[in-house]
Design brief:
single chain, mainly alpha, two-stranded antiparallel sheet, 2 strands
Length: 448
């Protein structure tokens, strides 16, 4: 046996003595805690690709997350069975592995702000502008911590939600198993540590492509990594870790879903025509041109999507098996999709998305509006934190208008005691918004 016993640790962050029931494992409970949480529920009104879309059949973040969980479970069951056959896992642990992956999958976008990746950029650009001005809270923050705000990252915000903000606040958060938290963390490094590494040190390390931990939650991940046996590199004050092998399975499920389903959504929305969507899906599955005359075009695209997902799952399972040793020792440099025999077909789909879907006129117009909405919210809420700083971090001393604003938007000021926690509080509030709630608060703050 390899280290899978540690990699599938069911020990909970913040509640190490807890044990699951025979009829409902800790990993299944993790999945349920995530699905029934408020941050997960809010994904129903957060952009996947198309902001503020009224079409009922266009994906939003919640539906996408559920679909990623389904694909991730299928991937993990096949990989788990292979590991059992290879003598790497004891029989029965293939189900545990699948449950870990499904839970991590449904959580993978839980930290995303309104308006998708455009919202991430908007938050980061706003913070960058504040640091450039060098006044107020921005001037009081340790410069080494600035990049975690100026390059705001939904993955790091997701880990913060799971381990600190939701449920048992500051006491383990959702208290998920360490296996699920390890499988969730795509980038096990803080922005400060990543900034300290050279391009050569980051080269070929997918886990260092971005940062996935805020400094405020680094100690939580250190505890997770120790339990899972994830290797640490660097100095104690500038550590980064090897990724959990199941991170690649979670990433693959996400890659499969958004690439293939984005095409179906583009057809549904009218951004791409039938033949433009049909051709890359047929190429992905090596279609033999089966008769589809009995189907509408929408039905045919849905059939191709379903078959394409199944073909992609098989390709990623094969890639995992072929690269198993490198995956387990942390030296595998890429993604399963990129290492699969479907890599070329997926690259063409990604090129099509970049050139035709992500640049569609309606999407572009709404992203411009969304950027302004997010930055208006940040501008409007910042005075509460500035007043709090001026009053010695005593929320009971807020001035009348500031306190009125705090009540109007139900702003949570617990734990805000310095510049860093204040800026995190501002980011927590803004990134937690749904698209429509952000629009409503922006209008209220601007008096319109």
């Amino acid at each position: 046996m390899t280290d899978w016993t540690r990699l599938l640790s069911s020990e909970r962050l913040g509640d190490a003595s807890y044990r699951g029931a025979a009829s409902r494992s800790v990993f299944v409970q993790d999945h349920d805690r995530i699905v029934f949480s408020a941050p997960f529920r809010r994904l129903a009104n957060k952009t996947q690709v198309h902001p503020l879309y009224d079409h009922d059949h266009i994906h939003h973040r919640l539906i996408h997350s559920i679909e990623v969980g389904s694909v991730g479970r299928s991937l993990a069951m096949r990989i788990g069975q292979w590991l059992v056959d290879q003598g790497e896992l004891p029989p029965g642990d293939d189900y545990a592995l699948a449950n870990v992956v499904q839970a991590a999958c449904v959580a993978h976008d839980i930290g995303n702000p309104p308006f998708g990746h455009s919202g991430e950029e908007s938050i980061g650009d706003w913070f960058a502008g504040r640091f450039d001005l060098g006044r107020g809270l921005a001037a009081d923050l340790d410069p080494a911590l600035q990049s975690q705000f100026t390059a705001f990252e939904g993955n790091a915000q997701g880990f913060r939600i799971l381990t600190r903000l939701e449920m048992y606040r500051n006491r383990g958060g959702m208290r998920l198993s360490k296996a699920v938290l390890g499988a969730f963390t795509k980038y096990p490094v803080t922005a400060r540590t990543r900034d300290s590494l050279s391009d050569a040190q980051r080269a070929g390390r997918r886990g260092l492509k971005k940062f996935g931990l805020f400094s405020s939650e680094e100690s939580y991940f250190a505890e997770v990594a120790e339990a899972l046996g994830l290797r640490a590199e660097g100095l104690p004050q500038a550590r980064h870790w090897h990724r959990h092998p199941l991170v690649l399975v979670v990433e693959a499920a996400d890659d499969i879903c958004y690439n293939i389903v984005d095409l179906e959504d583009a057809f549904t929305s009218g951004d791409l025509d039938y033949d433009t969507v049909r051709a890359p899906l047929e190429a992905l599955i090596d279609s033999s041109g089966k008769d589809s005359s009995h189907q509408t075009r929408a039905e045919h695209i849905a059939t191709l999507r379903a078959v394409a997902i199944g073909r992609a799952i098989s390709a990623c399972v094969e890639a995992f098996e072929q690269n198993y040793d490198a995956i387990l020792n942390g030296t595998f440099p890429g993604a399963l999709i990129e290492a699969s025999d479907r890599a070329q077909q997926f690259e063409k789909i990604e090129d099509l998305a970049r050139s035709r879907i992500f640049t569609s006129p309606r999407k572009t117009e709404l992203e411009v509006s969304g950027r302004r909405v997010v930055q208006n919210v940040l501008d409007g809420v910042l005075p509460v934190y500035e007043d709090l700083a001026a009053k010695g971090w005593d929320a009971g001393r807020l001035s009348g208008p500031t306190e009125q604003l705090r009540r109007a938007i139900s702003l949570d000021l617990r734990d805000v005691t310095d510049a860093e926690s204040a800026l995190h509080g501002l980011a927590d509030f803004t990134s937690g918004m749904t698209d429509r709630y952000a629009l409503r608060i922006a209008r209220m703050l601007s008096g319109t």
